[in-house]
């Protein structure tokens, strides 16, 4: 007998998976950063507006949590092509986010990191646009992320210029 059924995932499980997904990327980025923060990074010339090193971890942790909740708000919606595309773009931008730390802190490629973060900025805008079509709350949860990445882009550019 062939029965068709829709497999559903408990909303609580979706929330937990959403948070784990984003926080794992954050953990990976943090690990990549930690290897150079007190060595290579400390030798770079930085602009006057460079925040203290201790600020980055709590800010990024909050941002990854907000991103996870935004992802959850879209994922919990009924499955549609539009929703699936939005989730795919979100995951893609999350990967670009994680790659930045590897390029900047592990490879010490400030210019290529600037290219990556510029692509990330555009992808965040696209993600927010797609999320707005599905969940305005999800899109709004990404605004702090966009603002921080905007600041980080200026900071990356300034460090590239100074070094």
UniProtKB/TrEMBL annotation:
Membrane topology: Multi-pass membrane protein
Recorded coiled-coil stretches: none
GO CC annotation, single: membrane
Subcellular location: Membrane
Major place of residence: membrane
Pfam families named among the record's database cross-references: TspO_MBR (PF03073)
Keyword line: Membrane, Transmembrane, Transmembrane helix
Keyword Iron-sulfur listed: no
One Gene Ontology term from the biological process aspect of the record: tetrapyrrole metabolic process
Homology family: Belongs to the TspO/BZRP family.
Protein name (record): Tryptophan-rich sensory protein
């Amino acid at each position: 007998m062939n029965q068709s059924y829709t497999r559903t995932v408990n909303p609580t499980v979706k929330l937990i998976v959403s948070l784990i997904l984003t926080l794992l990327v954050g953990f990976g980025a943090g690990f990549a950063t930690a290897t150079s923060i007190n060595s290579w990074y400390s030798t770079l010339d930085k602009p006057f507006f460079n925040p203290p090193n201790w600020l980055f971890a709590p800010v990024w942790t909050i941002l990854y949590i907000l991103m996870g909740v935004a992802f959850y708000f879209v994922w919990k919606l009924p499955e549609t092509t539009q929703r699936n595309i939005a989730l795919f773009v979100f995951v893609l931008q999350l990967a670009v986010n994680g790659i930045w730390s590897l390029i900047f802190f592990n490879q010490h490629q400030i210019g290529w990191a600037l290219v990556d973060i510029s692509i990330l900025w555009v992808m965040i805008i696209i993600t927010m646009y797609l999320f707005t079509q599905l969940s305005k709350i999800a899109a709004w949860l990404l605004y702090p992320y966009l603002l921080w990445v905007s600041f980080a882009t200026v900071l990356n550019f300034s460090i590239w210029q100074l070094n």
